[in-house]
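Working notes for the structural subgroup meeting. M.R. asked for a predicted model of this chain before we commit to crystallization trials. I am recording the input and output together here so anyone reviewing the notebook later can reproduce the run.

Input as submitted:
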Amino acid sequence: MKTIEYYMSLPYRMEIIPDPEEGGYTVWYPDLPGCLTCSETMEHIIETAVDAKKAWLEAAIDEGLQIPEPSRDEDISKYSGQFKLRIPKSLHRSLAIHAKREGISMNQYCNYLLAMNDAVHSGN
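Returned structure, recorded in token form:
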């Protein structure tokens, strides 16, 4: 069985997404479904991201889940990281309220929700 040290040493790609409207950053690991975190400052984002990756890996090992190795052949350059989405006003309001309750921007909150739902439906 591979150890936490083994997985922590692998070059997992990390993506940092700034929130220009409300400030702060969301960081996630595309190869680790649902592994993401937020930080208010760029100074702390790497430390926060490494902590989130370690916690995700520890939980996966404890639960006996299969941990994917970093992908190498994906052409990520064709994706900008942005898309426009129209939603009902009531949903917009609800998302804004929940994000405020969590103390993060609505963009960060929606990114979290999308990543978590994507992880559930990705089969990993």
